[in-house]
Specification:
14% helix; single chain; 4-stranded antiparallel sheet; mainly beta
Amino acid sequence: MRYFMVLFLALMLLSCGEDVQIRSNTNWKAEVNDRIIFGYGNMSINLPDENVKVVIQNTTKHGYIELVITPSNIFGTTETYRTANPLDKIVMER
């Protein structure tokens, strides 16, 4: 039983990174660590644990964008960012 607990804790600590969900009802453009992604609607991305920069914005004058960041381990909390104005950007940097 002790071996199982040690293995479980090691796996939880090794599950690094963050799952990022882009939720939108319009076209958008995202820059993730200098990689540019164009999309429409919802999309999921897995990010590394360190040195992450995400910039996302609408490419139209209507609609919304929401960025939901969920850590891949049990020790973090989910963060949600939402644009108040369709022309606003969401910038998340770690």
